[in-house]
Amino acid sequence: MTARLRTNAELEQTSGLMGVVCERGNLKLAYQRVVKNKGAAGVDGIGIAEFKDHLKRHWPRIKAKLLAGSYIPSPVRRVDIEKPQGGTRTLGIPTLTDRLIQQALHQVLSPIFEADFSASSYGFRPGRNAHQAVKAAQQHVAEGRRVVVDMDLEKFFDRVNHDLLMERLSKKIDDGQVLRLIRRYLEAGMMAEGVICPRKEGTPQGGPLSPLLSNILLTDLDRELERRGHAFCRYADDCTIYVRSRAAGERVMASITRFLVEKLKLRVNRTKSAVAHPWERTFLGYRVTWHPVPRVRIAPESYQRLEGRIREVLKGARGRSLTTVIAELNPVLRGWAAYFKLTETKTALEELDGWIRHKLRCILWRQWKRPYTRAKNLMKAGLTEERAWRTACNQRGPWWNSGS
After folding, report:
1. Beta-carbon neighbour count of residue 17 at 10 Å?
2. Residue 299: closest CA among 308, 310, 313, 288
3. CA–CA distance, 392 with 376 (Å, rounded to integer)
């Protein structure tokens, strides 16, 4: 039988929400999604390969604790990764068991809160994605809003106020066991190098529940912006507000910063936030131009990140066949092309394509090594014997020759 999510009506008819979370169909769907997402092991070291056997042995006991309200989550494993814009992002990787429980919670809680979310919120919601957010931003600019208030929330996931978040949750959830479990997940310690540090704020990225909790808290921001009549796009903690003048933008920046600090206990990163033209700021990897009509193009930073990723793939390619290198490179290019398919300017893509081909020819030139091998392969490619030998022996470097 195929597992499915329950409707709001079915949820309302259930006396205990924790019972719905622990239902077989909900858990089966949660297990499928956790296994599909793979991911690293938590502090217990149990990976995907061992997870099924682990559940067979321990799930009856875990389920009994969940229903009794006595389950205590394990600490999350701290992992620091570099941000594309600089600095580090701290992830908290739960155990697979806790990921399963969080996913089961998410599947039950999401339809309860989804109806209250803003139409201008696009991150981590069913049927919504980054492309829709970028198109909405383009539409706001097309309507004459040539100034964007680009707000960067400083370490948002590390600074979520637990009491404020639990207050929002309790307005829609009356099951005390579910609320206590979520509070325990928020307060679960973070382990780094064998030391567990307690947490009094934040909902660390890495678990299935954090994106939903972030949307629940930031709905207050959405409603405030809607109350003021602003055009905006929010993708998780990335929020851009579109206005018609720089003076209006400065006023919005100041007033919304106060709202975030006073009402939600959040900080705005002033060095990364700005009031500027949309074509000067990056939103979800894109920029929106103005002249002659608003167009979406790939941000320069996105090109630089792709170039860096390609250089990593091509590093050490001299000892591998070109077929192997291309096979490794193709998934990177396909994923990048799928995400940036909205771009409406071709020049940069053509330049990028030429640069990649140049790099691949450079690898071939280095692999050929001797002049005889180079001349023979150049003749196979269609050059005359005289020109092939002249090129093979010209004493110029691989980059020059691969571009000639």
Report:
1. 20
2. 288
3. 9
Q: Which residue has the tokens 């994605």?
A: 129
d(CA 404, CA 401): 5
What are 276's two structure tokens?
A: 């500027």
Instruction: Please enumerate, as own/partner, the contacts of 300-307 that have beta carbons within 8 Å and a separation of 24 or more.
Output: 301/84, 301/85, 302/340, 303/348, 303/352, 305/84, 306/332, 306/336, 306/352, 307/352, 307/355
CA distance 151 to 390: 58
Q: Pick from 227, 188, 218, 183: which is nearest to 204 by CA?
A: 188
HSE, CB side, 13 Å, CA atoms: give it for residue 348.
17
Largest CA distance in the chain: 87
Specify the pTM.
0.86
Query: Regarding predicted confidence, which is higher, 275 or 157?
Result: 275
Q: C-alpha distances in angstroms, 298 versus 264, 308, 335, 337, 373?
A: 33, 16, 14, 11, 40
Find the mean pLDDT for residues 274-294.
Answer: 92
CA angle 335, 336, 337 (to 5 degrees): 95
Q: Say if CB 79 and CB 206 are below 8 A apart.
A: yes
Contacts of 295 (CB under 8 A, 6+ apart): 138, 288, 289, 344, 345
Total residue count of the chain as it appears in this document: 404
